[in-house]
What we know:
By secondary structure, the protein is an alpha/beta fold. 42% of the residues lie in helices and 12% in strands. It is built from 11 helices and 7 strands.
Amino acid sequence: MTIQxxxxxxxxxxxxxxxxxxxxxxxxxxxxxxxxxxxxxxxxDDIISxxxxxxxxxxxxxxxxxxxxxxxxxxxxxxxxAVAVNSLDGRGLQQVTKAAQQILKEKWDRMKAKxxxxxxxxxxxxxxxxxxxxxxxxxxxxxxxxRTGNTPGVTKAxxxxxxxKELELLDTPGILWPKFEDPEAGYKLALTGAIKDAIxxxxxxxxxxxxxxxGHYPDRLEERYGFxxxxxxxxxxxxxxxxxxxxxxxxxxxxxxxVSELIVRDVRDxxxxxxxxxxxxxx
Length: 283
Ligand code: GDP
């Protein structure tokens, strides 16, 4: 899904999420485990405000495991509970309900003390496009397809999906815009496929990827392309990659455009293994 974000759309998205927030006890903020910082909406703290929140690092199967562990620790230390999941195969999803119960424990205990019978926790998912919101909702819905009725007072008919006895999830996620102002976040979103190629310069993206790999994953760069340092010589690196992979133009010179495409494709196809682009120590 491609969304063009204009100020009017952003205001509308924010309004919709704010409306939905009133119906839930907790927000599941979905982010890409490869980009725990860059794949967040820039105004998320403002929008969620004081509503309890669980950060869910999705696509953990594609991220650097050691970095994911560091990020989880980092979120928890800053007072935000976080879990890592794979929405495609369901790995880690059992943590979601447990974490939500933990976060709301005090509130639920207070309700119990007042003699109010505990009910299911109501939650909604928010996140930028492509982080896996629909996949996660479908995955959770599969367990128990029984849906409760519409919620009155909301323009679009919204339904609650029952996830076990303890959790109910709004079937419509809140879709928020990504970070536009930060070019580095833009490159990272493009390298993970969240932003479509048409709006990004392939060569800029490829050069960013090479520098990133040199800085954070030199071993993997060496394994794939035979060098671990660019020595500040980008054209030289392109020549080496072009020769290694035989990317020539008709006259036998290196085809730079094709080398750019090849680098970006290699990153996206995980030819460098599982990469995390937001390093916890850099943030
Ligand atoms: P949405 O725009 O946030 O609703 O994102 P989607 O649910 O449409 O997912 C975007 C892409 O990410 C799809 O191609 C999904 O198959 C893929 N995806 C979602 N969750 C995971 C995951 O945990 N692991 C992997 N590898 N891919 C995922």
